[in-house]
Amino acid sequence: MSENRGTFGGILGTIAVVGGSVVGLGNIWRFPYMAGENGGAVFILLYFCMSLFISVPIMLSEFTIGRAGQGNSMASFRKLSKNRLWQIVGIMGMLTAYIIMSYYAVIAGWSLDFIYESAAGNMMGHSPEELSTAFTSFISSGTKPILWSLLFLVLSCGILVFGVTKGIEKANKILMPLMVIILVGMVLNSLSLPGWGEGVNFLFEPDFSKLTWGVALKALGQSFFSMSLGMGAMIVYGSYIKRTENVYRIAGIVAISDVTIAILSGLAIFPAVFTYGIEVTSGVELVFLTLPNIFNQMVGGYYISIAFFLLLFFAAITSSVSLIEVVIAFISEELKIKRIQSTAIAFVLIAVVSILCALSQMPDSPISLFGMTLFDFNDMITSIFIMPLCALAIVFFVGWFLSRKVVFSELSSNGRYPYSKLIKFNYFMIRYIVPCVIILLFVSGVLSLFA
Ligand code: TRP
Q1: Kindly report the CA angle at 58 between 321 and 11, in degrees rounded to 5?
Q2: Are 74 and 91 in contact (CB under 8 A)?
């Protein structure tokens, strides 16, 4: 991608690729467990508002930098500003992509294992306890999760060597709608379970006593993670958006799809969590403990579970290519080496940390940092610290350093879409509201989480 700067084809194609990056494990795996750990409805309400009012302006800011700068996350800053300090944002973004990818590959590996186990028929006809024991022994085995995550990385890098856009664009147009259909089927099934009332209450009835600064900061982090923001992935993708495209429409549709898929996933999971007596605070493992029980209940569960995990794997790989692309584009352009070599380097670097992350998930694993598993630590450091700070730098750059003329011209596609009120509103958000909200949540959230 980085060697010949192509463009996405048309609005559907653009939404397919940007949507491919945005919709991923963040919606189906991370959203439910974060909601479970952080009080349910309160977290979801915050996540919803932040996605629409904070994340959309940030996405538009990243698009603006990418479209005006026409380069990778660091090169775009270099082109738009003489001050070299801004390039640090590009470097931080690259490091974030690297860290996220190292644990993303582990979870994506789990989804590969679940495809295999579903197809082999090992998921059906078991009690919730048996399923949970089987999952624990899978994670504890160490080697299996490692092999699956390496396979996932090989597949992702394979796609990246051959270039991303064309294949992903086509596949996403078919597979994303399919995923939504299966998810809706699972929601309908979950709503017929005895625990549906409790599940729906947990998701939609806010208990404001659970509201803390820490929860708000985590909701912001979830929104950034889910919308692929705060590390320059959307700068890179923005640089591929055609000049004639309406960026508002893209950001709006992508944000609404992202939130909708997360909520659907919550609606599929939580009724089952309560029905089968799974702890809402199970953390990282929540979704993988819950899903097999849902498929055990469904008519045609055997086929649906294979299809679902295939789609989950697909959602993961279209996101992971956008993450790894940030690392590859950086290595190949900054070190001036061939794409295939930089892909190999990125693969090795990511694989090493992925293996450590997988090992840190084993019971009693000695691999930990500050009392957390390496896995949890990597997730925390990126979503609570680096992404909010990078996002802050990005909106600051667009709001206060880029000239108003450049920003307005990018946001309106050179005046082709003169939605002046919308543009003025977003510019106002980017300059004042978004930076203030991020600073407030960051400072108060960090103080409350680590006090
Ligand atoms: N948004 C993806 C998901 O929900 C993950 C992802 C892809 C991402 N690219 C990113 C997260 C860039 C942060 C930044 O699974």
Answers
A1: 60
A2: yes
Dig out the tokens for 160 from the structure.
């990246």
Distance of CA 12 to the CA centre of its chain: 20
d(CA 258, CA 50) in angstroms, rounded, equals 12
Angle at 154 between CA 178 and CA 149, to 5 degrees: 75
Cβ of residue 235 lying under 6 Å from some atom of ligand 1: no
Atom 13 of ligand 1 has which residue's CA nearest to it?
228
Indicate whether residue 223 lines ligand 1 (CB < 6 A): no
Give the SS3 label for residue 372: strand
Helices marked H in 335-363? 339-360
Whole-prediction pTM? 0.94
Cα-based torsion angle of the residue sequence 369, 374, 377, 379 in order, rounded to the nearest 10 degrees: 170
Report which secondary-structure segment, H or E, holds 369.
Answer: strand 368-369
Between these two residues, 50 and 84, which has the higher pLDDT value? 50
In contact, 283 and 207? CB cutoff 8 Å: no
* Residue identifier of the C-alpha nearest atom 12 of ligand 1: 228
Quick one: average pLDDT of 195-217? 96
Provide the pLDDT for residue 167: 67
Q: How much is the CA Rg of the chain, to the nearest whole Å?
A: 21
What tokens appear for 30 in the block? 């991370």
If you measure from the C-alpha of residue 153 to the centroid of ligand 1, how many angstroms do you get, rounded to a whole number?
15
Using an 8 Å Cβ cutoff, are 147 and 276 in contact?
Answer: no
